[in-house]
Design a protein that fits this description.
This protein is an alpha+beta fold and 454 residues long.
Length: 454
């Protein structure tokens, strides 16, 4: 075998230009496939990162009213507190005990409220969140100045607030916000801290959808202890939940299990298929718990409203976008594979030429006792070496091509090691398949006819 390999390299080197032109189809095909696969992988990672963010692995679980997210508007006290049980600490501990979930929190939210005031300065286009002591850890926040909430803020019903850096910059115009008093619906709240995300993430924006998704995730939020929430808003509001998965790959499972546990807690005995990631889905009228109509709030005689929690399955959304991208690029891979077929035909052609050129050499070897399998192995090895060299050159060209595409189109790439291994193996297979016919022809030559060949 080693002797065959040595002779193959010797033959390739003695006909350098011919060998290179023979390998060109293989080089182009492998380079194209490597570049396309690397671009697909990089694009998929970009989609995943744009949706998931900087790695906090959090999943929001929101209360749904029929097919839409339940939102409490300012001045709207018509909430289902008498029909949907309030999520409690015991349920939170149940969620945290799950293998896929690292932490969990329940929070209250208002997006449509009166402005917050500091002296004569008002701030609009913001949101309030009433949070428990686990919120900042679960969602990955850190303090930039001051402190977060402490247990005494909850037990003593203190009117304190924490703001994010956007609110601090907009409302206080460069002043130190600590100790400042803001007015929320006529109630004074003292600022005790400023927070921001522990990790900074700026997504790659290649489309308007990416831009909208990024802007939706901006903060501009004032945080209140959930114990002080009724001072400004309603009593017994129904919270939403956020769970943090142990890792990114566990996000779908964490969201699914947490949603099931919460819905079981409030009286939904089963979760319809396709709940995660969809707009909703009506609840089975017969589903319920010991409380009877735990999920039905009548808006009038003969009218029923269904409530259930639903997790936004970000990973499923990312997967769907990735599959859409991959389906398009698969066609490009098949087109690139045509050049491999052309390269294989070129290998077969040059090997047939080589057999013709070396007919007397083959006859001499057979005359002194070389067996058919020896001749067959020699020419198969030469074909495999030829295509393997083409494959290696194609890999180098593919990596360079992928980087060039990345620079020109600002598209991220991620070099795929499995694709490289596949390229090498596939190039060897091409050499064996397309070198088989010439090798068999050489092995079957009659030694007398071969020696007479001119």
């Amino acid at each position: 075998m080693l002797e065959n390999i040595r002779l193959s390299f010797q033959g390739v080197w003695s006909h350098k230009m011919r060998s290179f032109l023979t390998m060109l189809g293989i080089i182009i095909g492998i380079a194209s496939i490597i570049a396309i696969v690397s671009t697909i992988k990089g694009t998929n990672e970009q989609i995943k990162q744009n949706l998931v963010g900087s790695g906090n692995n959090t999943i929001e679980i929101k209360l749904m009213e029929n097919n839409s997210e339940y939102i409490v508007y300012y001045g709207n006290d018509n909430i289902p507190s008498s029909k949907v049980p309030i999520l409690n600490e015991e349920l939170r501990e149940q969620l945290v005990a799950m293998d896929e979930i690292a932490d969990a929190t329940f929070y209250l939210r208002r997006n449509y409220v009166d402005s917050a005031y500091y002296n004569t300065t008002s701030l609009e286009s913001m949101q309030y969140r009433g949070i428990d002591q686990h919120y900042f850890d679960t969602c990955g926040y850190k303090t930039t100045t001051g402190r977060m909430f402490v247990p005494e803020d909850y037990t003593q019903f203190r009117k304190v607030a924490v703001v994010d850096k956007d609110v601090a910059a907009s409302l206080f115009a460069g002043e130190d916000p600590l100790g400042k008093v803001i007015e929320i619906s006529g109630e004074p709240f003292t600022i005790v801290g400023v927070v921001e995300k522990s990790t900074t993430f700026r997504p790659v924006i290649n489309s308007m959808d990416d831009y909208k998704r990024y802007m939706t995730n901006q903060e501009n939020t004032i945080y209140l202890p959930n114990s002080a929430w009724p001072i400004v808003f309603c009593y017994d509001e129904i919270p939403n939940a956020i769970v943090r998965a142990t890792n990114t790959d566990s996000m779908s499972a964490a969201g699914s299990k947490a949603t099931e546990a919460i819905n079981n807690f409030i009286g939904v005995s089963a979760i319809p298929e396709g709940l995660l990631g969809n707009a909703g889905g009506n609840v089975d009228e017969n589903a319920g718990s010991a409380d009877g109509d735990a999920m039905a709030a009548g808006s009038g005689e003969g009218s029923t409203t269904d409530y259930r929690y639903k997790a936004t399955d970000i990973m499923e959304t990312a997967k769907n976008l990735q599959e859409l991208s991959a389906a398009t690029n698969q066609q490009l891979i098949w087109i690139a594979s045509i050049s491999l077929l052309v390269g294989g035909i070129g290998v077969m052609n040059i090997m047939l030429v080589s057999v013709t050129e070396r007919t007397q050499e083959i006859g001499l070897k057979k005359a002194i006792g070389a067996r058919k399998n020896r001749i067959l192995g020699q020419f198969l090895t030469e074909a495999a070496v030829l295509t393997s060299l083409g494959g290696l050159l194609g890999i180098a060209a593919g990596i360079i091509l992928a980087e060039v595409i990345s620079k020109i189109s600002a598209t991220p790439v991620a070099i795929s090691i499995p694709a490289i291994i596949f390229a090498v193996v596939f190039s060897v297979i091409i050499g064996i398949i397309f070198g088989l016919l010439p090798s068999v022809k050489a092995a079957n030559l009659n030694p007398i006819d071969a020696l007479r060949h001119e």
